[in-house]
Amino acid sequence: MDLDRAKQELEEFIPHVRNIADGSIRKMAGRDLTRFKQFKKQGIAVKFGRFSQKENNQIRKNIEEFLSITGIDSAEKLLFTSRYPEDKQTINRLKAEHLFCEKLSEGIPRPWRLIYYRARKMFDPNNYKGRYSKEEKEKLKKYHALHGNDWKKISELMSRSNLSVAMKYSEVKSSVNYGPWSKEETQKLMHAVEEVIKKRIEKEDANSLSSSEKSHREISIDYETLYQKLPWTEIEAKVGTRYWRQCKQKWTTILTNKMTKGQQLYRGTKGLQAKINLIKRLYEMKAEDDNDVNWEELSNTIGDVPRAYVRAKFYKLKVSCVPLWQNKTF
């Protein structure tokens, strides 16, 4: 399949596909397109975002079955083959012979690459080692000075996962402020978000509008563009004094205040009613997992607010009002 046709067919399932690198699109055309079409026939949409417990269980099942078929003795060997150079050739041969790509993604309506990354996160023994000590943080800074953003190399030296060292470095690379946001920091955050959104719109326009249309176009942005899939590490770098998760949380707060015109939705009698409405709607949805909930729809239940705001409020309700909530089903 040629590249243009691959983009056209994938766009039905992944609207932002034209922003993805050509090499990745070619891989998706081979690994994902047939699966996506099969899911469509079953009335199942392609999913993004957080993995549900059901999907995690399916990944475990797929991995266990593949290990059973091939005789590979651990998920770590299967997913981190480079750590076992003496077995690498045999493992890669078995993965090719028994169609590892197809087996791993079985029953999961997501791009293969995301499933693979999720499996690596779930089965990496270096991913669950608790808090970083002061000595580890200093080592991390030293290794980054030597190896830059080669997280694979740094993860091997630290005996931590790639994701873990990358995220931790984001926190420790500079003096991060943990206190209240200053007016200057808030302005930097707003300017940073404005810059990345403008850049995204300009890139989309370059692919779809003529030069005369661009010069006369009024820019309008839907809510989703303002808070979904923003490049938070890039925004973090522009702000300078906060790490990415702080930036994301602060931006959600700013958006909520703008969208509600500063009204306190969760205080007083109105706040109590909003919580009751939220619980009622969640109950009516009969969702089995947090990721099965349409948070966008729920945001209209308590006011015109970002879905992240509603999700955070439900989490706070759950933690503060439900004893032993960690041990209960959704």
Descriptive account of the structure:
Helices cover 64% and strands 0% of the residues. It is an all-alpha fold and 330 residues long. It has four domains: 3-123, no CATH class; 134-173, Orthogonal Bundle (Arc Repressor Mutant, subunit A), CATH 1.10.10; 183-206 and 221-260; 268-327. α18 crosses α19 (307-321). The protein is globular, with a radius of gyration of 23 Å.
Order of helix and strand elements from N to C terminus: HHHHHHHHHHHHHHHHHHH
- What's the β-strand tally? 0
Number of helices: 19
Mean pLDDT: 81
What is the overall shape?
globular
Over the alpha carbons, how many angstroms does the gyration radius reach? 23 Å
Name the helicity range: 55-70%
Terminal-residue CA separation: 43 Å
Classification by helices and strands? mainly alpha
Low-confidence stretches: none
Strand proportion: under 5%
Q: Quick one: biggest sheet?
A: none
Number of domains as seen in the coordinates: 4
Considering the chains and any ligands shown, give keywords for the structure.
4 domains; mainly alpha
Quick overview:
With 330 residues, this protein is an all-alpha fold. 64% of the residues lie in helices and 0% in strands.
